[in-house]
């Protein structure tokens, strides 16, 4: 009796083992020794979320700057030039290129969320135009008309990107995992990391975040407790 059960158990274990090896995703789960998380890196989704967060912080600079300029304050134009340069170099030149090349292409190939992806890509192009406009107007914003035109371009960026980023965070980035095997998802994290170094250099996110933080200080929004409603 014991011998029979032992044989059956061995057969079941053998079958399960063969299934694991035949299914790449399951095989990796059985041997989860090397992933982005265990290597101390960040996953593709974590990177996309992190970079989206920096974009939102640039929008907060646009919003606060626009409000203060609209209220008649004199603000150093280089704040807007530097914020728009960060938008151009970090958001358009790196973050959105990664989305277009490595993320949206996969959704289109698999026929998932294609309509939404088309809209998001058209919005990237529209965002670049608004950034060019801010860069063009910021040095000349001493005159009333040009200052107003720059405020409108910054407001348009905010109107464009807030729902854009929200949709990516809730719909697109979470669905990315479902298009890939665990190995492919892990590999994408490595590809995006390498791409960041090639496009922007080593430790570029930390440098960009420090640059944004310095601009937040100059425009007076670095202490976020000011946004808590007073009871
Ligand atoms: Fe995007």
**Tally of extended strands?**
0
Number of helices: 8
- For this structure, what is the CATH class? Mainly Alpha
**SSE topology string:** HHHHHHHH
Which band does the percent of strand residues land in?
under 5%
Overall CATH architecture? Up-down Bundle
How far the N terminus sits from the C terminus, by CA atoms, comes to: 75 Å
Low-confidence stretches: 1-32
Bound molecule kinds, no repeats: fe (ii) ion
Assigned CATH superfamily: nmb1532 protein domain like
> Percent helix among the residues?
over 70%
Rg (C-alpha, Å): 24 Å
Name the overall outline: elongated
Class per helix and strand makeup: mainly alpha
The average pLDDT score comes to 87
The third-level CATH topology is Four Helix Bundle (Hemerythrin (Met), subunit A)
Largest sheet: none
Total domains, how many?
A: 1
What secondary-structure arrangement, pairings included, does this model have?
Blueprint: H1 2-22, H2 24-30, H3 44-70, H4 77-110, H5 114-137, H6 144-176, H7 182-200, H8 204-219
Helix pairs in contact: 1-2, 3-4, 3-6, 3-8, 4-5, 4-7, 4-8, 5-6
The protein binds fe (ii) ion (FE2).
